[in-house]
Amino acid sequence: MPRRHIRVTGAPEAPLRAALTALRTRLDVPAGFPPEVLAEAERAAKAPVLPARDATDIPFLTIDPPTSTDLDQALHLSRRGTGYRVRYAIADVAAFVVPSGALDREAHRRVTTLYFPDLRIPLHPEVLSEDAASLLPDRDRPAVLWTIELDAEGRTVAVDVHRALVRSRAKLDYAGVQRQIDAGTAEEPLALLKEIGELRERLELERGGISLNVPEQEIVEHDHTYELAYRAPRPADGWNAQLSLLTGMAAAELMLAHGTGILRTLPAAPDGAVGRLRRTARALRIDWPHHVSYAALVRSLDPHRPHHAAFLQECTTLLRGAGYTPFRDGALPALTTHAAVAAPYAHCTAPLRRLVDRYASEICLAATAGDPVPDWVLEALDTLRARMTEGARRAGTVERECVDLVEAAVLKDRVGEEFEACVVDVDEHRPTTGVVQLHTPAVIGRIDGPTPLPLGDPLRVRVTEADPERAKVRFEPA
């Protein structure tokens, strides 16, 4: 079953740290960077390739979790007649990384930044990802600057992308942004985040796109014990995500027009998968009339409600099968769209954390300028799909294993205790086996019973196993 993202507040105690260290060893996760990579990163940090254009007069800002220092994106929003202008600055990793150099080879080995509850394993050395290349406030940084003109309805009417020197003025976090907007104290450009975000959300619904507001699990260390809770995404999370989607859609259109690129694609879900979701909705007592589309239903759900949150989690099964699709020389692929976006889409807004985004930026810069795509980009296109597929698989494994491990740590001293839960999944072939979601703490686990499980019904359950070393939690009906 797909898992929620998990983050940790506070410092994990020694047993959990030891278990996470063992997990990294078992998954063969890269540890420190080789000396030659660190040396090249230090040199690059001191002497990046700076762009000719200067856009440091634009007061950009960033919106990220409060502790984040690897800042990929900075934004500036303004009105343009009856429409809007979105400026989206993306960290220019290519200003620091030499093709085929030690940094580049190591990035191809790592593929993505990996997130564990206690630390992250970065794609690039911290001297770049959390300092010289990061769009930190009050520092001049090379960036790939997207300028996207929107009409009064939020539709794209013009796109430009070029390299520029930028300077962020403020590092904001989602909670603070939400408070300012809700209180009406946010000034432009921040106040426009809601206005533009809601317009883009309406257009997403119109084209049949889907943004899943799946709650996040949060672990809090307190007096050497752990507590788990769910955090539903704030509206500001969604508005900010719409700007990234907007840029990714613009990148895909540039690539398709240029005849060379690498798209993030997802085929439409088979009828059987949607039919299964309808049965799940019925079991969870979620009203889904036949005339209501899947996208419209998802948008109507409240992630604060346990049954809605459980259904949103089940909806992530329709996102399985997403992949990377490279193409070149005008030979467009058979599938060019991402079913959840309901449009062509490309990853391009997180180059500090994802390898493919650096290549996407180069293709879009070439397309805008009418220049040939650099040879080093073309040479990597054929291997990027396999590298990104393997990187995404490893990141998914890390996420699942970490959640299992942390949940086992939360319940390790509570074997035999009983909890109120809800049955959120039942094995179609073995109806006595399924998945339950505890009301509190925020744990999801396997359950085995003597009789068929009641999907969607409340159920009192007993913990039968909670083993952090094996990252395993099991329940039985109480």
Q: List the strand order in the largest sheet.
A: 2-8-7-4-3
What are the segments in which pLDDT stays under 50 over at least 5 consecutive residues? none
Distance between the termini: 23 Å
Multimerization state = single chain
Instruction: Please state roughly what percent of the residues sit in beta strands, choosing from under 5%, 5-15%, 15-25%, 25-35%, 35-45% or over 45%.
Output: 15-25%
Query: How many beta-strand elements?
Result: 17
Put simply, the count of helices is 12
State the helicity in percent bands: 25-40%
What does this structure look like?
The model has no long low-confidence stretch (mean pLDDT 89). This protein has a five-stranded mixed sheet with strand order 2-8-7-4-3. A hairpin with a 2-residue loop joins strand 3 (73-80) and strand 4 (83-91). By secondary structure, it is an alpha+beta fold. Helix 2 (35-46) runs parallel beside helix 4 (126-132), helix 6 (191-207) packs across helix 7 and helix 11 packs antiparallel against helix 12 (375-411). The chain has helices at 14-26, 35-46, 102-110, 126-132, 174-183, 191-207, 235-258, 271-283, 294-300, 306-315, 355-369, 375-411, and strands spanning 6-9, 60-63, 73-80, 83-91, 114-115, 120-121, 140-150, 156-172, 216-222, 225-231, 261-265, 323-327, 418-426, 433-438, 444-448, 458-467, 472-477. The longest helix has 37 residues, at 375-411.
